[in-house]
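Handout, section 3.2

Students often ask what a structure token actually looks like in practice. Rather than define it abstractly, here is a full record for F-box/LRR-repeat protein 7. The first block is the sequence as you would receive it.
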Amino acid sequence: MGANNGKQSGSEDSDLSMRTVSTPSPALILPPHSSPGVLNGSSTSSSTFGTETIAMVHTPPTSLTHPQRSLRQPRDQQGAPIDILPDHAFLQIFTHLATNQLCQCARVCRRWYNLAWDPRLWRTIRLMGDVLHVDRALRVLTRRLCQDTPNVCLTLETVVVSGCRRLTDRGLYTVAQCCPELRHLEMAGCYNVSNEAVFEVVSRCPNLEHLDVSGCSKVTCISLTQDVSVKLSPLHGQQISIRYLDMTDCFALEDEGLHTIAAHCTQLTHLYLRRCVRLTDEGLRFLVIYCPSVRELSVSDCRFISDFGLREIAKLEGRLRYLSIAHCGRITDVGVRYIAKYCNRLRYLNARGCEGLTDHGVEHLAKNCLKLKSLDIGKCPLVSDAGLEQLALNSFNLKRLSLKSCESITGRGLQVVAANCFDLQLLNVQDCDVPLEALRFVKRHCKRCVIEHTNPAFF
């Protein structure tokens, strides 16, 4: 993604009233090779990461390129052909550039410098690199973007620093203090950030709707109180506006933390808790009490989640569209039956590795969740052709089906699926003992279906 995300790029127009036309102040660049930068006589060092280095300060170009050079000049005295492009065309091109590329464009000439720092191009900052000095980069970028509105950047809505392992609380404090209009923050894999820095962001950025802290192992809470043990009633005080929260691989998250998160983030619609291995059914009870609007939920690889947890999740009823319970070994047909009975608008279910799931559970899903489009029941050894037959006779909207490593599946079950689920687009039968004829039968009846298999004779 460039300096502007997809849904924002369409809003660009030719009005340049916001463009900085005064003497430019120092800009940030991410040069392709490590070299010293000089500002006001002092040097700023940079460290190299492949073809990208840390941010360093650079004075604006001294050369002046006019928007339109006279076409009457001799050919050898005219500027480059690109110089005849109008400003709005340059802005459209710049919207597709990444943050470091945009900073490099600012070095070409004074005209490009002014255009590259147009506020409309800076709704998004995207930095990457596990040795990038991201704290310093954020500080310099936000300082430059705040020059027209001291101390605050009113245009910046999205910050993506996923994979920047050197991000610390200091970098997040910069974002919290300078970006009050922030709506989208991704910092997956930044394991050096803590609860305190996240608290600063959510308390200072009231419009934040999308937060990805996956892999941030020190983060155990999202709240508006410094003391994570203090609950905030949904009926009292300010609430966090987050709707999308990804806490995958936040290993230290416990039921108490989830309780606090649910009490503060009552507008949640998408919640991903993959491999939060300390969570239990009690945490899911708190979630359903405070966050009744959850549409997508993943508790994959949460080994303590059982049928009792699914009974709580089932209270979301028709609002639930996506559910992942993969590798939750304590889940059986009993829990799946709760989901099938009450969450009849379910579109996606991942139950891979739920070894307690049998044909009876699949039958309940097939007869109650008629809008099911994607089902993963791979590595469920107790699911056989009988379950597939029930699925095929009821789930006519099925588009994706994974049966990987299902030991009891044979060609008969696959043929019934192929004969009834005409819209099937993906079928995974890897490590299944199915004959070649059954695979060919599927291919004939489901012409748009991609078959993932391990049969060397089928191609």
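Discussion prompt for tutorial groups: Residues 175 and 203 are 12 Å apart (CA to CA). How would you have guessed this from the sequence alone?
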